Amino acid sequence: MTTLKYIRPLFRFLNCSSTLTSQRFIHIERRKDHVRLIDKHDTMDFHYIWLRHNCPAIGKSIHPKTGERVVDCAEIPSNIEPEQVEFVDSEKKLKITWSKDHTSSFDLSYLLANAYGKNRIEAKKPQGKVDDIEIVYNKDQYDAYIRSCSERLKKFGLVIVRKRSLDTEEIIKDFLPCGASVVETHFGRIEDLRTDNTTNEHTDQLGYTDAAINLHTDQPFIADPPGMQLLQCIRRADTGGANTLVNAAHAAVYLREIDPNAYYLLTTVPIHFHRKQKQFTSLHVGPIIQTEGDEIKQIRHSYFTLAPFNFPFWLTTAYYDAYRKYASILYDPQCQYRVTLNSGDFVMYDNFKMLHARDSFTGPRHLRGIYFRQTDVWKKLAKFDKEK
Ligand SMILES: [Fe+2]
Hints:
The protein has helices at residues 2-15, 17-20, 48-53, 108-113, 130-133, 142-156, 168-175, 248-258, 260-268, 313-330, 374-382; strands at 27-30, 34-38, 43-47, 84-88, 93-99, 102-107, 117-118, 134-136, 158-162, 191-193, 213-216, 228-235, 239-240, 243-247, 271-277, 280-286, 289-292, 295-299, 336-339, 346-350, 354-358, 361-362, 366-372. By secondary structure, the chain is of the alpha+beta class.
């Protein structure tokens, strides 16, 4: 269906004489390593090396008697770039001039049939602008508050709400539909993140210290981690304790664009997420970036619960390089949201897309952590959509 949807408008172009004579509906954009063909509805991207590899020129590329290709793509320089790209023959053909004595002439119908880069959206580095995701609670505009949360969670994967409440149960009701409950973990129903916690028997983890905790997702070591997390600030730190968040799903799409080999390793090589506490252990084996087709489904990322890598020897340094390349995006301050929560504020985020971190701190900082199922949250938020 997608192919037909894409091809139809360009066929309309090919079959419509009034459009054929007008170039305003189709033009060419030269890029660093590829060309983009644009009409009113669609785009097609072709790498220069692909065009040279599939050049139909008899003699230069195709044997005149057998019609077979005479060029091995290994012979084509990876940085090949044409001198000129233009439409000819009433825009039915794309002419590419490689040199004085070599041109390729492609039928548009051939390009349409082989359009591997159709309507491609170029991935951009994620941008962490706090203004995009921050709202101030106003009790007189409750529905607008919920809609603002919904919009930001959908678009950016997180929302920061200022001055909401110290009443944790009141906030939970904002995101739970009737009959649903929060997700309980081995840390309890509501997790009190404070250094003097005495209510949790699993305090042998970084969350209950005043140490810095770098970027991670929560609970990657269980098969079905909670999809949303809310961190409510009861008391801020005396110094430090700021949070950092980054959209790791957007970062993964950007990684795919700039380093497909690294992306491939992080989406296919399983690693061991292994939580080992005195009274709790859990293991999940899977890749950091879980995909379904081209779609990023879920990120699992937690340096402090990783078991030693146990790859084949030849893969080990390549995997470290891929991990480091991904981290170079995640740890770029331009990509990160930096937030200091005050008493009564909360941040809520998609635990399948966002990584979160915390600076070290001093003083009796107290945050509460609550987990939700995504289906529950979206069901509740949908009740407040404008059209309803
Ligand atoms: Fe965490």
